[in-house]
Amino acid sequence: MSYVDRNLTAGETVIYKTRLHWIVMLHHIVMALIAAVGAGILLSFAFTQDNLPQNSARAFEVVAGVLIAAAVLTLILGAVQRNSTEMAVTNRRVVIKVGLVGRRTVELLLTKVESIEVKETALGRMLGYGTIVVIGTGGTPESFYKVAHPLQFRSMVQHQIEGMPQDIRRTT
User: Fold this and answer.
1) Which of 14, 87, 109, 119 is most buried, with most CB under 10 Å away?
2) Are 142 and 133 within 8 A, CB to CB?
3) Cα(172)–Cα(170) distance, rounded to whole angstroms?
């Protein structure tokens, strides 16, 4: 069960969820590919050289195994980074949780949201990611980078705020 689902209040429902875009894993994927290619080159060299001493061939195999393990670990770390971030809009709040072991949460009542800024690069617009800056009334801006579908997230927050009765928006 996700952080957002575990921390809903009575009568609160999730309207929209998003997370970090797959692009946050690009660095991890590239590093894993480099390690895997290096392991492949080492193994190929170790198996194709007939005059290579046995202990040298064994050393190449061990280093290749370490590179493959590093590649797998790198991919796992990237997946954990991506999946440990949750962002949701409920009928009452904006909830953002970042981190797995060390955790940072932002839970802001919709009535206290002053604005949500979206910043997208050209590549971000093409691939569907950007930076969200949540600004609460009287608060400091909270930035979240490489968020999937940032315009949709902002739109959902705006729709929820617009759907609130006028007296609730004025009194808080």
Assistant:
1) 87
2) yes
3) 6
